[in-house]
Amino acid sequence: MIANPTAKRLYDVFFSGCALVLLSPVFAIITAIVKLADGGPVFYRQLRVGLAGRMFQLYKFRTMVPNADQAGPSLTKAGDARITAIGRILRRSKLDELPQLWNVFQGDMSLVGPRPEVLRYVECYTAAQRDILRHKPGITDLATLHFRDEETLLGNTTSLEDFYIQHCVPKKIKLNQEYAARANLLSDTWIILQTLCPYWVGVLVTYGMLLVVSFWLSLQLIHDFSFPPIGARQFVTALIAVVALQLACLTWRKQCTGLLSYFSFPELRQVASALAFAAFGLLVLKLCFDMGPARNVILVDALVSVCLLSGFRVLLRRWRESSGEEEEDSVNPPARVGIIGAGSTGAHLAVQLIDKKNSGRKVVAFFDDDPSKWQKCIHEVPVVGMPECLLDGWTDKLDEVVVAMPDAPADRMHQIDQLLRKSRLKFYTLSSPRYFLRSRCSIQPEAHT
Predict the structure, then answer these.
(1) Is 251 buried (19+), middle (13-18) or exposed (0-12) by CB count in 10 A?
(2) Structural domain boundaries in the chain
(3) Given this model, what pLDDT does residue 2 score?
(4) Which fold has domain 335-448?
């Protein structure tokens, strides 16, 4: 159901106005920091294409050196020397976008809507793509969520603007069209919440809730499911100390970037080691400083936590697999493998390559069309972006590519085939990971160079 324009405008005015008032101290602090850093202007202004092709001036906090647009392209990628030290922090936290609340309050933008582009990129739109200009641009949208780490996605590209126009712009427009087809205030609110709460925060909160349950359950097991003989303050203090240390160790073991519904022995080892380190730290505090919960509580909680977190992720994996999402000679050094397709088939192949130490192959990256998987990890292997990223910076980092997309449409498979032929990498198309793993000789009928 499409949002009523009047209701959406009232929604935008109310929440942007409240945000401008409540965040005014933040505006003042950022203004002072940016100004004091190098004495340059506080705000960056740029003409963007808005509703029905009307131009408007978009506001951001300045994150680059003065006159940066004259020293390079308007696009930036990871490591761009024009970005200031303060600017990197503002970009990473998305605080540089806050001045656009004024654009929303004025009526040039909406809180949620297709991100406005500069004119030269809009001029590259096809007739069908220009249809997106019927919708008022916004601060955030589905494309913003999936391209949250756009600078990292573009980090390996050599032809920055060409890659962006050819591959990123069509993806963004497609996502915007998906949003526009079912936009309503409820979906807008959900997109705003996801923008404010990045994926890793959601993972951290999920783990936190499970660890709280684990600690409570451990106390109940030790005290035979009767209320433990400790006061409420002591319980809360111990709970905070235990869960905080466990979450810190899980973050250290990089368990907040992985997709929760992908789980195997590599993740189990990392989860178990993180919680073991946390238990060891708590035992040291208890033995040396008599701080924290009792030793038996620490040990039981460590075991229960591993079981609870692992069981939860196994259930998510079973749910994903049952939902029908997708279905040996040693060499030194091992061949570096990229997998196109981060679904069940690709994930299963990665697990087998990881577990089979003498396979002569090492999975270094996933490539997938699903933007929600980008910049996350599956079995500790990063999903670096769309398959087209292969042509920009990855041809020298890979030895082989495996196309693990058994359910992909024929036209998309044709596009990927042409893309891989341009890359000159050895590549394979398969539907069964076992067939790929038997030996290098057995896959020659499916191999291409």
Answers:
(1) middle
(2) 5-196, 199-322, 335-448
(3) 57
(4) Rossmann fold (3.40.50)
